[in-house]
Design a protein that fits this description.
Blueprint: E1 2-7, H1 11-16, H2 19-26, E2 30-34, H3 45-49, E3 57-59, E4 69-73, E5 79-82, H4 87-90, E6 95-100, E7 103-109, H5 120-139, E8 144-149, H6 173-184, E9 187-189, H7 190-194, H8 210-213, E10 220-225, E11 232-237, E12 249-253
Parallel strand pairs: 1-2, 7-8
Antiparallel strand pairs: 1-12, 2-4, 3-4, 5-6, 6-7, 8-10, 9-10, 11-12
Helix pairs in contact: 5-6
């Protein structure tokens, strides 16, 4: 099974940039999109046709043109749920939960702390509330896959210029500490487990020719329950895929025995 996550930075624009062709060529079993910034009724019939046969679950933000996530799957989920059940986060369309045999998948668009750091506290609250939900699910015996744009680089290896970004949201000590906390609560950053020394990124600013120069950040993650680790075959950062300031990331995982 291949699960792909991609922050498309506006789905309508991404589709005009040929992103649907990439979806069809890669053919993931599960596709999680973040920052869709549109409702399905804002897409044309042709644009919708790229997804409508794949059991779509849309969760746009209440605010037009902002945030939003969507999950698509070849096989229908056993259950789906929009949001965390916490209104202050759910109005921004940041989460979809879908349950499949053997795991619960969270499609996540974690808040950005903003350049002036005005949303850092909101972001940290999101991490805390999500972890409390995951702790309860782990206690009940569920395996979890958290995927999406975490808006945080965990370690210096995860961005090109760690020294100059120590005071920038996305690499603040208090943000990075939350990734440590998730790892202490039964999750694994499976890409870093597989590739402990690889310097590879999933987001580049549109400024300064950052992508051409590969001055990027690894913001897009799969954090998976320890019970799923033995089933993982690979994690692929598709840094040659264009159409957004992020690139897609795929988890390849074997089915249940």
């Amino acid at each position: 099974m291949k699960i792909t996550t991609w922050n498309v930075n506006g789905l309508r624009a991404a589709l005009k940039n040929g992103v649907a062709d990439w979806f069809h060529s890669e053919d993931p079993d599960l596709l999680c999109l973040q920052e869709i910034r549109s409702r399905p009724d804002q897409l044309t019939a042709d644009q919708l046709s790229a997804f409508e046969e794949n059991n779509p679950v849309w969760n746009p933000a209440e605010r037009p043109g902002y945030s939003g996530v969507a999950t698509f799957s070849k096989n229908p989920p056993l259950e789906s749920k929009k949001g965390l059940g916490i209104p202050r986060f759910d109005v921004e369309g940041r989460t979809i939960q879908t349950i499949f045999p053997g795991f619960r998948l969270f499609n996540l668009y974690v808040p950005n702390g903003k350049r002036d750091l005005s949303r850092v506290e909101y972001k940290l609250d999101f991490y805390q509330e999500l972890l409390e939900i995951c702790d309860e699910l782990h206690r009940s015996g569920e395996n979890i896959i958290l995927c999406g744009d975490f808006n945080t680089c965990h370690q210096p290896i995860d961005l090109a210029n760690p020294d100059t970004n120590s005071g920038t949201t996305g690499f603040l000590p208090e943000e990075r500490a939350w990734i440590d906390t998730y790892l202490d609560h039964g999750f694994r950053d499976i890409y870093r487990d597989l590739y402990p020394d690889r310097e590879q990124y999933s987001w580049w600013t549109y400024r300064f020719q950052a992508r051409q120069r590969n001055i990027g950040w690894r913001l897009d993650y799969f954090l998976i329950s320890e019970g799923l680790v033995d089933r993982v075959e690979d994690v692929i950062i598709h840094d040659d895929a264009l159409g957004s300031d992020h690139c897609p990331v795929s988890l390849v995982i074997a089915g249940e025995n």
